[in-house]
């Protein structure tokens, strides 16, 4: 789904974020922990266009001492809101 967000600002955020990694050309996984509900996003940036390939909220399992994907995020607006809050938190 296409996201209404500034591609250049998002790319700067991704490049400076230790919880983001490139998957290949123009594709990234971004884990966001600076929001009320942590999330993981698979993002692609093609020129000035940004697309979410997949997104889910994360839940922590203390027994496994790790994070797992919980609820799928299917709203483009919610994904943009998460990214904007994360970018603001990272200045």
Q: Explain this structure to me?
A:
The chain has 91 residues and is α+β, with helices and mostly antiparallel strands. The protein has helices at 7-15, 76-89; strands at 2-3, 20-24, 27-32, 39-46, 49-61, 66-72. The model has no long low-confidence stretch (mean pLDDT 93).
Question: How would you concisely characterize the structure shown here?
Answer:
With 91 residues, the chain is of the alpha+beta class.
Helix tally equals 2
Shape: globular
Identify low-pLDDT runs: none
Task: Let me know the number of strands.
Answer: 6
Mean pLDDT: 93
Sheet of most strands: 6 strands, antiparallel
Counting copies of identical and different chains, the oligomeric state is: single chain
Sequence-ordered SSE layout with sheet pairings:
Elements: E1 2-3, H1 7-15, E2 20-24, E3 27-32, E4 39-46, E5 49-61, E6 66-72, H2 76-89
Antiparallel strand pairs: 1-5, 2-3, 3-4, 4-5, 5-6
What would the keywords be for this entry?
single chain, 91 residues, six-stranded antiparallel β-sheet, 6 strands
């Amino acid at each position: 789904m296409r996201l209404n967000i500034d591609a250049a600002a998002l790319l700067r955020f991704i490049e400076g974020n230790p919880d983001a990694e490139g998957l290949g050309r123009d594709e990234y996984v971004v884990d966001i922990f600076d929001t009320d509900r942590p999330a993981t996003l698979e993002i692609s940036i093609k020129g000035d266009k940004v697309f979410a390939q997949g997104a889910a909220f994360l839940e922590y399992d203390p027994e496994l001492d790790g994070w797992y994907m919980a609820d799928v995020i299917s709203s483009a607006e919610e994904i943009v809101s998460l990214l904007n809050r994360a970018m603001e938190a990272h200045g």
